[in-house]
Amino acid sequence: MATPKPHILMIVSNPATSPVTGWPIGFWWAELTHAYKVFEEAGYAITIASPKGGPLQADGYSDPEDPSGYSAEDTISLTFKQTPDKMALLQETPALSSLKTSDFDAVFVVGGQGPMVTMVNDVDTQNVFAGFYESGKPSAAVCHGTAILLKTKLSNGDLLVTDKRWTGFANSEEEYAESAVGQKIQPFWIETEAKQIANTEFVVAGPMEEFAVRDGNLITGQQQMSAAAAAARVVEALSS
């Protein structure tokens, strides 16, 4: 009998409105598509879900077809967008509450501006992530998706990141983003908040450099340039 192929649960933010900018916000294209491509090429099954279920919305600047041209070179996301079967996966995502996490072998939280609003205080999503982690399954988050780690607790009440080395969107990158658009964007900065947590090690590389960290079965990526690298760490963990 053939061995079942690993099944990855990708958690993506539901659409929201930024309390700071008033912009519609959601997920970042590259963080979904670049990781998806790594898992797909590894032959894995992939389910894209969201905390509440339903259709998803991407951050405008992450769209390779956005008039701003900010992500115009993201050909991986463009190819995904031009594939009807894949786009259909974003139209009616299952809610986390409708899934059995025991059916999956790893979890991957996609970033974007949405998680800073929809996930940072969402205990249900945090509990799903902690459940994967405590089961010994690869548990990954990228960019602003790592905001969940500021508050995710284990079953014993400890923060999951206690005594762990991890990364996320850096202050230098927040400064760059705010300078580029000429205004404040985020309600808080992950690096600032992380460095106020005792007994954890939050580390970053240079702005927009590929950087992913694996500490046991916790895997984190710094920003959109690190989504594929973080996904590769998940593949590595599942293969070991």
Write the layout of secondary structure elements.
Layout: E1 7-11, E2 16-17, E3 24-25, H1 29-41, E4 45-49, H2 75-81, H3 84-88, E5 106-109, H4 115-118, H5 123-134, E6 139-142, E7 165-166, H6 171-181, H7 190-194, E8 201-202, E9 212-215, E10 218-221, H8 227-239
Parallel strand pairs: 1-4, 1-5, 5-6, 6-10, 7-8
Antiparallel strand pairs: 2-3, 9-10
Helix pairs in contact: 1-8
Characterization of this structure:
The chain is built from 8 helices and 10 strands. The protein has helices at residues 29-41, 75-81, 84-88, 115-118, 123-134, 171-181, 190-194, 227-239; strands at residues 7-11, 16-17, 24-25, 45-49, 106-109, 139-142, 165-166, 201-202, 212-215, 218-221. It is an alpha/beta fold and 240 residues long. The strands form 3 sheets. Strands 4-1-5-6-10-9 form a 6-stranded mixed β-sheet. Strands 2-3 form a two-stranded antiparallel ribbon. 46% of the residues are buried. The chain starts with 6 loop residues before the first strand and ends with a helix.
